[in-house]
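Lab notebook page, bench 4
Experiment: in silico fold of construct C2
Operator: M.H.
Input chain length: 221 residues
Purpose: comparison with the prior construct
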Amino acid sequence: MIKQIAIDGPAGAGKSSVAKMVAQKLNYLFVDSGAMYRCIAALAIRKGLDQNDTAAWLDIALTHKIDLEDNSTIVKAGGIDLTDEIRSPEVTLATRFAANNPEIRKILVNRQRQIGQSVSIVMEGRDIGTVVLPNATCKIYLDASSSVRAKRRYDQIIAKGLPANLQEIHQAVVDRDSSDKNRKVGPLKQADDAVYLDTSDMLFDEVVDKIIAISNGQLND
């Protein structure tokens, strides 16, 4: 039986790392849906496109095949390896122009659904349980306080030896939450049948184990 685990939540909630480990432990395919939108943004930047040139951005989505290889650890678009490039600050800022485009979202949502038709998957994003996989066998809404999520991002940046300002990062997290929740297409929200998990005071392994227990129907509260 093909199973689908949908994990949604705000930026910095730990969706990617948690979803990847859940997929690994269950031997499912991990799908980073956000990487697809990042690819569109990365290629738009390469082409020097204006953010308001929606037709040109749409053309990228229409003409470039996006491949998430080796459990989304290698990301390619049109055969171009963009794995590292899509994580740059410039691409991160520009990704919203792809994510907020209804036509681009329609194209990528269809591609994401196709992936989940032939193999059991763990897919993470912001509208997976509500839009992409509304009939997923397990839905999780992963959350944490904005201050905790900001501190996680801060620690990640510092660990790379880069300068960071915790207050600025926290404000960016708050602004991103507002943007994600209020956008017209695919807004961030908890699906009615999703299990809510606040990870603010949880260890990484605890979160992973709890999601697996929920997906297996073994959770007893």
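Observations: Strands lie at 4-8, 29-32, 66-69, 74-77, 80-81, 121-125, 138-143, 195-198. The mean pLDDT is 92.
Next step: discuss at group meeting.
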